[in-house]
Amino acid sequence: MPMRALLIVIVCSVALAAQQTASPQVTSQDLLDGQKDPSRWLTYSGDYSGHRHSPLTQITPENVHQLSAQWTFQTGTLGSFQTTPLVLDGVLYVTGYNNNAWAIDARSGRTIWRYRRQLPEDLRNCCGPVNRGFAMVGDRLFMATIDAHLIALDIKTGGLLWDAELADYKVGYSATVAPLVVKDKVIVGIAGAEFGTRGFIDAYDTQTGKRAWRFYTVAGPDDAGGKTWPTGDSYLRGGGSIWVTGTYDPQQNLIFFGTGNPGPDYYSQAREGDNLYTASLVAIDADTGQRRWHYQFTPHDVHDWDSTQVPVLGDLTINGQPRKVVMFANRNGFFYTIDRVTGKVIVAKPFVETTWAKEIGTDGRPVLLPGNLPDEDGSRTCPDLGGGTNFMSPSYDPTTRLFFVTARETCAVYYSWDQKFKPGEQYESGGTIRPRDQKNFGALRAIDPTTGRLKWEFRYTSVSSSGVLTTASGLVFAGDGDGNIMAFDSRIGKNLWHYQLGFPMRSTAGTTYMLDGRQYLLVPSGSMLTAFALPQRP
Amino acid sequence: MTPTRSMTMVTLGCLVTGALLLAQEQRSLTLPPGQNPHLGNPESIRSGMALYRFRCADCHGLDASGYRGPDLVAAVAGGATDERLFQTIRKGVPGTEMPPTEAPDNDLLLIIAYLHSVGTVTATERPTGNVENGAKLFSSQCASCHRVAGRGGRIGPDLTRVGIARSRTALVREIRTPSEFVAPNYETVTLVTKDGQRIRGAKKNEDVFSIQVMDTRERIQGFLKSSLQDVVYEKVSLMPEYGPGRLNDNDLNDLVGYLSTLRGADMAVR
Fold this sequence. Notes:
The complex is a heterodimer of chains A (538) and B (270).
Chain A: H1 3-22, H2 28-33, E1 53-54, E2 68-74, E3 86-88, E4 91-95, E5 101-105, E6 111-115, E7 135-137, E8 140-144, E9 149-154, E10 160-165, E11 180-182, E12 185-189, E13 200-205, E14 211-216, E15 247-249, E16 254-258, E17 280-285, E18 291-296, E19 312-318, E20 321-329, E21 334-339, E22 345-350, E23 357-360, E24 366-368, E25 379-381, E26 395-397, E27 402-410, E28 412-416, E29 430-433, E30 440-448, E31 453-459, E32 468-471, E33 475-479, E34 484-489, E35 495-500, E36 511-515, E37 518-525, E38 528-533
Parallel strand pairs in A: 1-32
Antiparallel strand pairs in A: 2-38, 3-4, 4-5, 5-6, 7-8, 8-9, 9-10, 11-12, 12-13, 13-14, 15-16, 16-17, 17-18, 19-20, 20-21, 21-22, 23-24, 25-28, 26-27, 27-30, 28-29, 30-31, 32-33, 33-34, 34-35, 36-37, 37-38
Chain B: H1 3-25, H2 42-55, H3 57-60, H4 72-77, H5 82-91, H6 105-117, H7 131-142, E1 147-148, E2 151-152, H8 162-165, H9 168-176, E3 187-193, E4 198-206, E5 210-215, E6 220-224, E7 228-233, H10 249-260
Antiparallel strand pairs in B: 1-2, 3-4, 3-7, 4-5, 5-6
Helix pairs in contact in B: 2-6, 7-10, 9-10
């Protein structure tokens, strides 16, 4: 072979090899491995179990006070982050307000690419065009959009690969959830219950964007739960939004999602019955979308208490017996430990003041207290519509076996009235106001999931919507409602460090990852990302 | 129905529907042209009530008769135009707690339709009492803590526009029983420093780790709680109660009359 040709072959081979090694490839096994490689954060909660717990130990209770900001990233857009950034090979993948998205150098905070979605002018959504993050597999990223689509982006460029419509945004559908990839499917839920829509969970082929299955969170007349709705078409306006990412149990091939409130939100007479599968935990076969079991936290909810919280999977020993469980701090104010094979309640205890139910009975149903049905005169109930907790992610530390949650101590006067449904208009049939003498504070609470008992708490001066993150070194990271990111000793709740971010964290508590031998804590708040680390050793 | 009339009705219907659809999406600064399509429509009024209770009732009262904010029943009965209502809701009232809104025009029109439906006609609030005497009373009793048009104290709320921000009933209540409701940013705290010094003032902000106050000498300052011995949250307002023994009913009437005339000041430099 002439020397020139040989050179070309060598150059091409090197280029191809470089391309292959440089191309980020996330496999299904990587997703199953979760936090095994702590330089990565590949899915919303860090792994399929929903623990939001990192095995990293460089930052410890002893040195956490030395944490300092390494860089900040500003979106340059309006609106606040509710995202959990994903991390792969030194690059952060971040979604923001109005479905802006970025690939960012994790070392420096500099932008690598940016995606902007052209959104229609006439969007309808109850709670702002927020987004909770990407999902990833292979060399692609997946984002749900506020105009109710699911899109796939090229991980290297942010270029659009496919765009699937979930539902018609013009009648009030929207999507804010971070999708969940399981094997060859990307699973996503729809929001829009405040507009009298019917919620669902969908699975799409990661390669083609074709829909594989749909599970309606509001049972139709032919479904097993169909009799829990009045005869007629009220189920078509039955709500059941999904806006928090579910979890996955590979042993059972089951995905778990919490479902939203029934619609209309407050007016009981519009939808007599339990209103399955709203305000529930549903266990669905990941391949077929068939429901294996469900547990309804709040039958016939009339307080807007979505159960769209993260179902956290764990293996516990309860009364001497090993149990496979799902742990759930619910907006209705109760903490639940549920057998994730059978769907039966093992533990149910209030973790905030609850005035609507005395307890959860042995049959799993709440024992209701009188005087809590909203009407035109109003009825005072605790918690308020924001709930005992909400969309903010909890965390579970499997070493201490403690469940950590941002709790809200609030009450409200709930009103309801009849309202005629019109497609595309808000359909809540009621509202709430805050009593003037109400308490109104938040707290980080550590709960023993085998008993539901409070282990410790740290009170905030106001309510918070921050998520929680734990690490194997015995740290809990969380944010208050006043813009502080804080670190606590996970065993006793002692505050060890805080930093004023200028805007409170919402939904997430950030992510942590190793890069170049340093452990980073990455915190989204407002329109800013801040990366913290310990001082570099010389 | 004749074809012409039918055509006219269809055209009118389309125009109204079109205007309504437009209003649902738009965020105008002024009242959209044409009649408010929700006026007198029971369904719209219910929707307006829902929006009102959600967005307005905390300040203006559940029945719109005013609490911290003005009495809207009286305002509407007194001839407040839809244009004024629309612009007030859209733009807010600078210098008061009334914020601007980005809500769609349609939401504002629904709220206005609801406001037209509540209560029966009540008398318009007009200044009562001897305004001149009220001004004197203000100067001697109130001005050390409250500011009007750039003059006066700052520990209490600025009252330059209080005449449009408070109903007469609210003014009377807040003078007679100021501790019944203390607005955010004016709650009373006493900070006790490590060396035992006590600093009393109005809380401006607070989180778990710090607190920011204006003390009674109008010094604004932040403190780290770790540097304090104690933070005492007082239930009472910094403002003393002006009961009948301190301010008789006639003087109260004069003072409220004067306060009702405070409707903003031109602070432009010329």
